[in-house]
Design goal:
With about 325 residues, the chain is α/β, with parallel strands linked by helices. The protein is about 45% helix and about 15% strand. The chain is built from 9 helices and 8 strands. The strands form 3 sheets. A 4-stranded mixed β-sheet has the order 3-6-5-7. β1, α5 and β2 form a beta-alpha-beta unit. α3 packs parallel to α5, α6 packs across α8 and α6 packs across α9. The longest helix has about 55 residues. The protein starts with 8 loop residues before the first helix and ends with a strand. This is Hexosyltransferase. Belongs to the glycosyltransferase 31 family.
């Protein structure tokens, strides 16, 4: 007869120890589970909070009034249309001048030759052009009128990369000298304002006497107070760059100024890095300051309402 299984003292002792050591493991597993549930709960709650906050933020943004851009404000005020109209008037004025009219709507010929007279001047080595940029609305009626007039008269110099606007004049003069020196090989390059009545033969004679002179910066030299108060006439936004005395450096008046070939070439080569200020004559004068330019102050180029032995007069 087989006996019942029995356990020895040693076996009972081992099982008892095994059961005792498993209790802490169970407790650790339980606490780990509780901890995991707590962390998961917090993460879920945080996720819900973030979603709620995101929705509230989105709703708040949608309800906020639209922030108007500068363009929006200009359109609301009607300034954008006004700015466009000013550009149109300026381009129309240039077109009218090219057709032989001066300001004040007087039906008189301008000083600029036309037709055969213009061709004869070019045979003498003198090239004269009306300089103009393009309309802000490329290809519009203004651009077409300029192109049509130029096809007839051949007396325009159109700066294709420049947008015509009053505030762009400093960049226009840079663009002019840079482009002119690429198109014509001349000893001198001159810029004349469109409100000037010019003694053309007197200017040609003046330049004939200067032939062969490199580094010539010719004009009616001046300086003056830098206007630092916004809203005043001749306000200079970067007035602080001109020192405590607030005085411009010596520079040629923008009504009529002349550069020799090498100075015009300098503008062409360095055009991208040349700084412009509020006014074209000040901008050009700043470019000349760092060069070995010869400043030639010629009183005959000081345009005024009375000519009196001057090459030019204000029309």
């Amino acid at each position: 007869m087989e006996g019942l299984p029995t356990t020895t003292k040693n076996e009972r002792c081992w099982r008892s120890k095994n059961l005792q050591t498993s209790k802490p493991s169970l407790l650790m597993a339980f606490f780990s589970c509780v901890t995991w549930l707590y962390v998961a709960g917090r993460l879920w709650q945080d996720a819900e909070n973030r979603t709620l906050l995101a929705n509230l933020l989105k709703k708040n943004i949608e309800q906020r009034p639209k922030v108007l851009t500068i363009e929006d404000k200009l359109m609301v005020l009607g300034c954008k249309d006004l700015e466009r109209r000013i550009v149109e008037v300026e381009m129309d004025l240039t077109l009218a001048k090219s057709q032989g009219y001066l300001k004040h709507q007087l039906q008189q010929r301008s000083w600029m030759p036309r037709g055969d007279a213009l061709k004869k001047l070019e045979e003498r080595g003198v090239v004269i052009r009306f300089v103009i940029g393009r309309s802000a609305n490329r290809g519009d009626s203004l651009d077409r009128h300029i192109d049509e007039e130029n096809d007839k008269t051949k007396d325009f110099f159109i700066l294709e990369g420049h947008e015509e606007a009053q505030e762009e004049l400093p960049r226009k003069v840079k663009f002019f000298f840079s482009t002119a020196v690429q198109n014509w090989d001349a000893e001198f390059y001159s810029k004349v304002d469109d409100n000037i009545d010019l003694d053309l033969e007197g200017l040609i004679e003046l330049l004939e006497r200067r032939r062969g002179q490199d580094g010539a910066y010719i004009g009616c030299m001046k300086s003056g107070e830098v206007v630092s108060e916004e809203g005043k006439l001749w306000y200079e936004p970067e007035w602080w760059k001109f020192g405590d005395e607030k005085s411009y450096f010596r520079h040629a008046s923008g009504s009529l100024l002349i550069l020799s070939k090498n100075l015009a070439q300098y503008i062409n080569v360095n055009s991208a890095s040349l700084k412009t200020y509020a006014y074209d004559d000040v901008s050009l004068g700043s470019w000349m300051m760092g060069l070995q330019a010869t400043y030639i102050d010629d009183n005959r180029l000081c345009c005024s309402s009375i000519r009196q032995d001057k090459v030019c007069a204000v029309a």
